[in-house]
Amino acid sequence: MRLSTSSTAFNGLGWSLFALSMLGIVGANGQGFQVVEHQLVSRQLPDLSNISTCGSITGSGCDLTNTTCSCASSQLGQLAASCLIANCTMQDSLDLAKLQARQCNLPHESQTTKMLGILVTVYVTALIAIGLRLVAKSFAKIWSTDDALIVAAIVIAIAPFSLVIIMATMGFGTHLYDLQSGQLTKILQLLYAAEIVYVFVLLFAKLSLVTFYLRIFTVPRFRMAAYSLIAFLVLGQVIIGFLTIFSCHPIELFWNKDIHTGGCLDINQLAYANSALAILQDLIILALPIAMLPGLQMNKNKKISVAVIFLLGSVGFISTIIRLQVLAVFGNSIDPTWDYVPVVWWTTIELGVVIVCACLPMIRNLVEKWFPNFKLFKWSSPKPSKDSVGSSSVGTDDKSYKMGRYQKFGRSTSPPQFSDNYVRDHIGGPPSKTDEISPTKYRDMYAYGGSKPKVLEPPMSPPQPYDLSWRSTNPYGISGENPSCGASKPQVPMPAAPPQCLPQEWATWTTDDGVDASTRAYWMRQANLALPNPCPFAAFGAVVVNHTAGGLGELVCTGANNNQGSGNPTLHGEMVAINNCSAIFTDPQGRYNMTPANALLAFGDLTLYTNAESCPMCASAIRWAGFKEYVYGTSIDALVDMGWGQITVSSKEIFNQSSSLSSETGFLGGVLTNETDGFFSWQFRPNATCPQGCSRAASGRCAPA
Fold first, then answer.
1. CA dist 272 to 3, 177, 275, 329, 581, Å?
2. What is the pLDDT of residue 493?
3. Are residues 433 and 540 both part of a single domain?
4. Using CA atoms, how far apart are residues 202 and 210, in angstroms rounded to an integer?
5. 3-state secondary structure at position 107
6. pLDDT 10s digits, 285-299
7. Domain that holds residue 431
8. In the chain, what are the helix, strand and coil shares in percent, each to the nearest 5?
């Protein structure tokens, strides 16, 4: 369907068959000539004297009067086509093609069944892939631009697929001489419409892939390259679409070869240019994510798995290469309704591969839900290191560890604690013993189906912070409403800065959990609000969030820098938050009542937010804990520029040196820096403006107003 049929194409197609037919007529004698002459008279075809000059054509190795040689020659028709085109109509050429097929005993074959089989298989496979993708996204309850684009692609693809099916009913897939009168014109009209629509179907499918990359790769240079690629895709496909629409002038000349005025673009040049552009686009789309793999915070096995997912896109590239070889007959075929069928099915395969490839990451997540022990789709296994789950340090044994592992995969008979099933099915946690649970409030822990055990669902409540003693009050009036740009404004005044919905700078990688930028900003504000007052000197705050609990997410615990108040130099905000979480998880009277082993495993499903980049000590603790994600605001470099003494080893470097750990942690930095920077800019700059709600005291420090 990525075709560009023109008058030149037809010259080498139907008119070439006409040439061969005429050659057969000229060479007929005796009874055969009488049969042909009778049909010529009944059809009232042009007088053969008009084309007598074609007998002087040389180079085919045949005498035009030699019928046997003419039927066997593949060159003679091409040489005679230009001589014959001015003398016959499209109907004449079809009639003479039928005579030539009868005279030369040409086969009556059909590729229609094979073509339709490929067409239906590819489209149904693409529909299934998109259906599974949407099911997976419905569990996360997060929809994004790439979902809309891929759905648009499959919906628009109904048009060209339907047109090809109609073409097949008219004879596309059979030889030209087996067509009925008038069918060739209709087939060319449908082909013209199909190839125009297909250009934009492929555009939507490729845009979906690139926008998906934008969600999972957040390095500034990558995003710049991705946006440039989007512009290149749109511009390239619009140009190809324009050239396809106006490939002939007048446009009707595309399907009506009885028009002898105007002209068409060279079909071969346009087809090859189209394929070359597609190959270039495929190579760039393939290269972009592969180039990012070395910098991802993943172990080797996971990188290989991710690379395999992306390399499956090369199948579409291979189909483009194969179609390029098939295009060698484009514009030169003497039998277009037969020879162009492989072009159509390889084009269809390319589209199907692009759609399926765009859905594979989400399908993988879904398969992990349904078949958690199916290691082909499991990028990493819950294999704790000695330091993560040790028999001596946490007082557990092999049996306890196995229990924790089975809970990770949802096999425990007790309510799961931050397991994949637990958090991804939006269950906020097991109820405490004192909770009053409505007998009708149940949830299937396997929300995606199956006869699985039921677990009680705790009542939902808005996020509540905890202080250093794990208090359950809400001193800063944190709103529980869902986040949006400018929503959830705290009661405590924030630093003077314009509101911002998107991060200013991005780090290397984030897990594809569907958390949008406004939700990230909301929780970064909660890290700011974890501070004991609006302007403490060491204004380092942190929150730990369960993002897979559904909706906004669940606040698990908070922490703020307390080394001065406690005399403990290790109590940075992140360390306090981790300590608080551990105490909350293992509290026998608390909501979770976990064993120490299970508490260690629980961190693998949580995200830690801190309003400033973690020092090497805290970054190492985050990696040892095995958090799912780590998100920070102000960078270490910015802190140094503001006058803060720091050990200038970035958390990214710490993460890079921790690849041997069994756990993996997503990494995202520079979130909401226009708000977080204000907490750290005044301490060493006497003329700096204090955060809102604070003013300069006699000591020179900012204090609550």
1. 10, 28, 5, 12, 61
2. 34
3. no
4. 13
5. coil
6. 888 888 877 766 556
7. 398-456
8. 55, 5, 40
